[in-house]
Specification:
The protein is an alpha/beta fold. It has helices at 12-21, 27-61, 64-121, 124-166, 168-171, 174-215, 217-222, 226-278, 284-325, 386-393, 416-422, 437-442, 450-459, 463-468, 486-500, 516-529, 565-571, 574-596, and strands at 347-354, 363-370, 375-379, 401-406, 409-410, 423-427, 504-508, 534-538, 550-555, 558-563. Keywords: ATP-binding, Membrane, Nucleotide-binding, Transmembrane, Transmembrane helix. Pfam families: ABC_membrane, ABC_tran.
């Protein structure tokens, strides 16, 4: 995933074309929308023509038959306009909803494609702004701005064309009005856009801070930092509000110029029109029709300019989303990936090198082979690439050099779906959805039956505590599972992994956050369940992996030592130092507990 560190600013044309590209599948509907819009514009032009005939012919001649004819035409035009507008609005709504749906699906698909590399480099608050700010901005383009601009431009072309047929001389009065607005309004529009951009940047930053505040509510209370957090948010809010206020100031100035252009032109029209009527160069009916269409044309023209200006603000908001959608995923699946008929669970790392972004390699020539059903533990001090290794197994990242094989097949050749179906994870921090326990377990296999959910819970030693809850498996766990203890959440995570029935299990410090007794209970459940499954465990407490088939000691991104627990202890090397350090920490903890008691 290559990101431009300079945060390239794309042109309005490029971003706008991208926004409208989601309408391409519905071009047939849009052509129908345009045709109905043209029909509506022609009807609106025909109405002043009927008024002209009424004034110039019906009234002077008192022609009753012609009067009824004009009245009938008006009624037909009115009915046709109602039908055309209703159908046009329906088509517009269909186009808007379909394009908005496609855009949201595309954003979700992009998030899934970018995966771990993106999530680890960007905050959740930043990602949420796509759904709170950028996507609604594009929805507004689909819903209001683009249809209105198209409709008004068609109306303007048809109306001005008809005005030229009535009186080319009167039509010349458009020129000074247009020039006044054209040369004065853009300056204020640009200033308004600059201020709204600054305002949106500040509001985006405010959104991140608000997310941080909600996520860190406990820490803020513990450190009595609520006032500091409020001041921090208020400062950002005040800057955003000031820029928004200045935006509206310039918008109002532009609106004043719009009215001056329209009504100033109307005054000139009355003066010059009176002279043309006096000279019998224009009839009264033609002047009235021209006057009606003049106001419609001027307001339409200035509306188009206003809409274009306001749309620029929305496109600026969409620019961040466009930049996001242009990101390339680091992990790319082959167009025709290989498929394994049956997965045995053999896993091999061959001369694997890896580092994050532009950083130096964390893994430097890592070699390790796991036989099907073998249990292997990875230990070492922090920063040696233990957790990084687990992320490579399911292709959350790809190595810079070397390869990883599943059953002798490079995982880059496999479909990502099959690979991740074959691997089950239990992380140090378990994420539970704010749903029922049953739903959280079934997340590992959405097709699982209630009996299978219960069987997985029993195997994970979770059934007993679940049945003690008020609603059993239907008990809601709260946001992120906050109604459950750490040990209970980990057992739910284990049940979720088991119901998936993976060939390979990866435990990334899955019990490091638990107390000793809870960890012992969870590890006993895991020991029973991992028999026959290839297991790769990143261990926090060495005491929990004594019985593993193989223990790998990592140092500086390489394997420093490797063997069984007893073999490594006899070697009295780096592993022995790790064990000694753990025993000293455990001894200090016990002394502290005794002092407290």
């Amino acid at each position: 995933m290559e990101e431009d560190p300079q945060q390239t600013n794309y042109s309005f044309r490029i971003v706008y074309a991208w926004c409208l590209s989601y309408m391409k599948p519905y071009r047939g509907l849009f052509i129908g929308y345009l045709m109905l819009g043209i029909l509506g514009s022609l009807i609106l032009v025909a109405v002043p023509k009927c008024i002209q005939v009424f004034i110039d012919t019906v009234l002077p001649e008192r022609n009753l038959a012609l009067f009824y004819s004009v009245l009938a035409v008006l009624l037909v035009l009115l009915a046709a306009m109602i039908i055309a507008n209703n159908r046009k609005n329906t088509l517009g709504l269909i186009i808007q909803e379909k394009t908005s749906r496609d855009l949201q699906q595309a954003v979700f698909a992009q998030l899934r494609q970018l995966g771990f590399p993106y999530y680890e480099r960007h905050s959740v608050g930043e990602t949420l702004t796509f759904f709170n700010t950028e996507i609604p901005a594009i929805h507004e383009i689909y819903r209001r701005y683009f249809p209105s601009i198209v409709q008004n431009v068609m109306m303007l072309v048809i109306t001005v064309g008809y005005l030229m047929t009535i009186s080319p001389r009167l039509s010349l009065l458009f020129v000074p009005c247009i020039l006044l607005y054209y040369f004065s309004a853009p300056y204020f529009e640009k200033k308004a856009v600059l201020y709204i951009r600054s305002s949106m940047d500040e509001f985006k930053e405010l959104g991140k801070k608000q997310y941080d505040s909600l996520s860190a509510s406990l820490e803020l209370r513990v450190h009595a930092a609520e006032n500091w957090d409020i001041r921090r948010s208020l400062e950002t809010n005040e800057r955003a509000s000031h820029h928004l206020f200045m935006h509206f100031i310039y918008i109002n100035i532009r609106a004043i110029l719009r009215r001056i252009s329209v009504y100033g032109g109307a005054i000139l029209l009355f003066v010059y029109g009176f002279q043309l009527i006096q000279g019998n160069m224009v009839s009264v009916g033609e002047f009235i029709a021209f006057l009606l269409l003049y106001f419609r044309s001027m307001f339409t023209m200035t509306t188009v300019v206003t809409l274009l200006s306001e749309q620029k603000v929305l496109v600026h908001k969409a620019e961040a989303l466009y930049r996001f959608m242009k990101l390339k995923p680091e992990v790319i699946e082959l167009l025709k990936p290989a498929a394994l008929s049956a997965i045995q669970g053999g896993l091999e790392f061959r001369n694997v090198h890896f580092g994050y972004g532009r950083e130096e390699n964390i893994l430097r020539g890592f070699d390790l082979a796991l036989s099907p059903g073998q249990r292997v533990a990875i230990v070492g001090t922090s920063g040696n690439g233990k957790s990084t290794l687990t992320k490579l197994v399911s292709r959350f990242y790809d190595p810079r050099a070397g390869e990883i094989l599943l059953d002798d097949t490079p995982i880059q050749r496999l479909s990502i779906g099959q690979l991740r179906e074959a691997v089950g994870f239990v992380f140090q921090e378990t994420y539970l959805f704010g749903a029922s326990i049953s739903d959280n377990i079934r997340f590992g296999n959405p097709e699982a039956t209630d009996d299978e959910v219960e069987a997985a819970a029993r195997a994970a030693s979770a059934h007993d505590f679940i049945m003690e809850l008020p609603n059993g498996y239907d008990t809601l766990v709260g946001e992120r599972g906050n109604k459950l203890s750490g040990g209970q959440k980990q057992r739910i995570a284990i049940a979720r992994m088991l119901i998936k029935n993976p060939a390979i299990v990866v435990l990334d410090e899955a019990t490091s956050a638990l107390d000793s007794q809870t960890e012992s209970d969870v590890m006993q459940a895991l020991d029973r369940l991992l028999l026959g499954r290839t297991t790769l465990t990143v261990a926090h407490r060495i005491s929990t992996i004594r019985h593993y088939d193989l223990i790998v000691v990592m140092d500086q991104g390489r394997i420093a030592e490797m063997g069984t627990y007893d073999e490594l202890m006899r070697a009295n090397g780096l592993f022995g130092l790790l064990v000694l350090g753990e025993e000293e920490r455990e001894h200090e903890r016990r002394e502290m507990d005794q002092n407290v008691s």
